[in-house]
Batch of 2 targets.
Target 1
Amino acid sequence: MNIVKPNYSRPLDFKQGQVDMAHGSGGRAMAQLIAELFITGFDNAYLAQGNDGALLPIITERLVMSCDGHVVSPLFFAGGDIGCLSVHGTINDVAMMGARPLYLTASFILEEGFPLADLKRIVLSMATAARLAGVPIITGDTKVVERGKGDGVFITTTGVGVAREGITLSGDLAQPGDIILLSGTIGDHGMAVLSQRENLTFDAPIMSDTAALHGLVAAMLDSEVRLRVLRDPTRGGLATTLNEIAKQSGVGMMLHESAIAVNQPVEAACEFLGLDPLYVANEGKLVAICAPEDAGRLLEVMRAHPLAREAAIIGEITEDAHGFVQMTTKLGGRRIVDWLAGEQLPRIC
Amino acid sequence: MKYVDEFRGGELGMNIAANIAFEATAASGYRLMEFCGGHTHALSRYGIADLLPASVRMIHGPGCPVCVLPIGRVDQAIRLAREHGVILCTYADTMRVPCSDNLTLMRAKSGGADVRMIYSTQDALKIACDNPNRQVVFFAIGFETTTPPTAVAVKQAAAEGLKNFSVLCNHVLTPAAMHAILSVKGGVALDGFVGPAHVSTVIGSKPYEVFADDYGKPVVIAGFEPLDVMQAILMLIRQINEGRATVENEFTRAVTREGNLKAQALVEEVFELREVFEWRGLGSLPHSALKLRPAFAEFDAELKFSIDYVAVRDHKACECAAILRGEKRPQECKIFGTVCTPDNPIGSCMVSSEGACAAHYSYGRFRDAA
Ligand code: SF4
């Protein structure tokens, strides 16, 4: 006699299995994927309730929200993958507002045929990143698109946080005389991804710097220096971020090339591909602009944090009707550090 | 990469700058043309103008591959992609060169033409192998540096019997352009050349001897690092002060008199001189460019698809022609920095970072803003 086990369904095959259209259909297959992968992986009380949304406790402080889509290719690269990147990216965007990130949401667009093994690896990487950061992923969504209509997996995350009392950071607050600090080397993430894609090999692979910066930001805010702007120079690199700030604040900048550190393999890879590290993405660095009297103290605080050991003062804000970001070169000449023109670099975040 | 930093260092640069300032005393001044876009870029990127005395004036030359490409040549590429349905493979810079009908390869691509950006000729071959049912055309541009890789690709395609690969050949020759600059009537007055870096690794320093011997212009071949360029400027000043005109080589770490004979033989095997080729700015110059030899005719996209070259006039406000001849500076163009910017280039000199207009806009325009 055939015995039908109650409530039994065959577990997902995370070794050989693939995403198929049913995983996004809203039916049993989707429920199974959510239960066995996402709820188990992200493991928190909000998700475990299994509702359409998460019911949050009352929050009385000013809220900060930020949202970030991730389409990096390749999905796995030295130093990280699209999973931890999607957690770090949004945590950092919330942190740059001077806020403490509280919750994340995640939305997945999966391509039909994507290996479940890779999906599991990505979800576990997200789960680990979220746990280490202390910011749970409390609700999410999954959609599946037909083969050829996606690129494996795209992940969009949203972050909610609360701004520290009395702190307002904004790109339009930089004033002439203010000092610009940078938390470390530039170009690591972008070149980790690009060198992998272009099959450039070095003695040691270039590692992405992807990291959650809210701890560093908290330490900086604790020091009570007069911070005006925080921003993480991701897509478009340091040059783009500084131009955005200059434009928002209606000021100019004078940078010093010799103060901006670039790891040697990154420099070599940039040289090879004809790129300028100033325009290459970072995922674990921040730019801080503060009042001139506080710059020394801020630098000390930053250097005391493990994610900003190589922090440096890289320039100052100037009065400039043209809003030029300029730089004194290592040779002693002067140049503009302009907006990036023309084609985007390939997808790296 | 210690190697690179050695050639960008501050102290050595200051020393060379001090020597230049000390020695550049001739009342008539020094009008030096850096032939290559690579040098134009280095001068701007490192702010070298700030380290030179007023007596030394650098004049940008025509050695920027996408800058000298006339509109009609890009039109040909677009026609191939749109009317003949080929997969057109091109280097990144070429994507944004403005051409007829307000088009660029990039816009043609968003309009549905199959244009693919590649990093090397090998990428183009691979695309041809992967798409046996499509015709694949490599849009080959550049001076003598980029010619050998194209030759390799053509030979490889021939050896593999690839029937769906061809080349739209626009390879041009450096010495022909230097001749043209020096022989334009009423053209720019020059006292010497900073000679090409990468080009010279292929062709050697010998082809420049005629400019020293017959035209009396000193030539100093220089690498693309900022200190290379500064050292070359100093060497030119010394020649001029001493009344000498010879070919000197600052870039001895890579350039010999004879050049790379293997690469030259390869190019010789695959290419022959075109009767005449139209350059942007320099006009139609005899024997100034290459085409595939008859033995490789089946890989010549112009023959394969019977697309004729049709000359097209530049935008009427654009001064690229005069800039490429060294007669004008970017800021003398009426639409520089307003209508024409790197985000919306009107002329080819605003496209590549090696173009004079793009280099001045991206790195040096603060000098105009006083
Ligand atoms: S600014 Fe633009 S239009 Fe004017 S010469 Fe340069 S490229 Fe041509």
Note: Residues 189 and 208 of chain A are 4 Å apart (CA to CA).
Target 2
Amino acid sequence: MGSRTSLASDVSMNSLLSEEERGIYQDPGLIRTVLSTTKTIAIVGLSPKPERPSYFVGTYLQYEGYRIIPVNPRADVILGEKSYPDLMTIPEPVDMVNVFRQPDECVEVAKQAVQIGAKTLWLQLRVVNFEAATIAQDAGLNVVMDRCVKIEHGRYSGSLHWVGMNTEIISARRGQRYF
Amino acid sequence: MAGQKRRFGFETRMLHAGHIPDTVTGARAVPIYQTTSYVFEDTDKAAQLFELKQYGNIYTRINNPTVAAFEERIASLENATGAVATASGMAAQLNVMMTLLDPGDEIVTSSHLYGGTTTQFVHTFRKLGLKAHFVDPTHLDNWAAAITPRTRLLYGETIGNPRGSVLDIEPLAQLAHAHNIPLVVDSTFATPYLCRPMDWGADVVVHSATKFIGGHGSSIAGVLLDSGKFDYSRFPTIADPDPAYHDLRFYETFGHYGFLMKARAVTLRDTGGALSPFNAFLLIQGLETLSVRMDRHVQNAQAVAEFLHGHPKVAWVAYAGLADNPYHALAQKYTPKGPGAVFTFGIKAGNPRLAGKEFIESLHLFSHLANVGDARSLVIHPASTTHQQLSDSELEQAGIDGGMIRLSIGLETTEDLLWDLEQALQATSA
Ligand SMILES: Cc1ncc(COP(=O)(O)O)c(C=O)c1O
């Protein structure tokens, strides 16, 4: 199933954003394009502790075939990958910057994401900072905000459905993978 | 990229939510995945599934593709963030309690409950070290007065069985939230078509899907749903490290899915009570016609209630669709399409207990049995069945009139139902 299959259904639950903001930062088409074109993901705030949410997400993304690059000044290696103190020190191209930090730290992260030429800034569920979003948008980056990359991947790949969750996807077309 | 996205209507979601025709076969109806288990892609994936790092099928006690289609569909209809299906309504309620409570915890519950639920909350609770405080649900003050520091949730039925009282969900949810506890609502009698408790602030909804959701009296089933809106960050059983899962903190890790993930991965896993795939298929068939059936159920119920209301051999009718019913105003707020199709009435007779028996035995179309929510009309006389061992004075104490009859109105031709009731009332002694 290619990424061209369009989806008409609104995905509105579990977000702090207004309908208009969701249209900008959580558009299903944008999210699907990001998920299908991204290869390398720098995870800012990835924890080395296996019980932490960021570790769950990192493990998930790795298993799904993305290359992850930990960004955590207090760790050397996480999930088998060398950890960097910040985005600027990563010596290779990064497609997506995925942020597990407090909202007030996001402006600095956004500036660095622009500087290293990332294509997407993705602020996790409940991480909302419009200034950071604008900085990235003005530089031409895709911006996703107040969404979890694992949940969204699960939503559009079909797996979130297997655990009884309401994906809000309604379609009579054949095929389950939407990116 | 940003485009106007469509919010599909209730009826569309009855038919489409939770099922996308699969890539391999394109099967239009939801297939019955009658399997206990699922071949893992590799050992890594297996390990990840067991650690809850991937979403996927493991074992049908925990999840199953046919069951998942039912779960997502009903979640969509209830405006819930997700659902866990169970083998019965009783199992769904117990799952909620075991997921949210620890020994020593208490709940405050409406006393207008299905009898089996009352028994569960008294006797099974005692074995688990839990305690339920029962309150008359009609006054908010009763609820507030019963809440203690040990109270972990409030519980009630949208339309109480069998008295037909309508729960005032909105202020009750506000009261619960003021105490940082969730409101759990059994919405069996309403179904998501007549009322969606989460739209009024309820956090968790349970159903006996055995009833109108299945709709044809064929399968025992239940389901629990979560709105995803309750803040469980300080709620011990969902927020604290779970020793049954490598000290996982369900709320921190899964956020708005935390309660549901625990209900499935811990409670359902450890207590069993999973829904069978075949029953899930039958429930899906039920959901696909839910709105059409419920419109007809309430239309027939209203006609029957009005007929009985004006009948000389009838002492009282407890249906909130009648203008003089004490719950009529609440019914108009919470169930504007009609307050369900299950209600009770009393026969006027010198010996109401005997008259009740005579009435039941004279019916031709109403099936005499212990269930509600079938497509067919059902009847039961509590004084000669569920409560037959009680003396007249004990019956009175239990709030049951010897001549009380409970009806569950089905989809038959309205005039045939009225005809049957009329001839049976004629046959009962005054
Ligand atoms: C309101 C209500 N809740 C729960 C139940 C229990 O459901 P089940 O019989 O599916 O276990 C019933 C069954 O009669 C009911 O009427």
Note: Chain B has a mean pLDDT of 95.
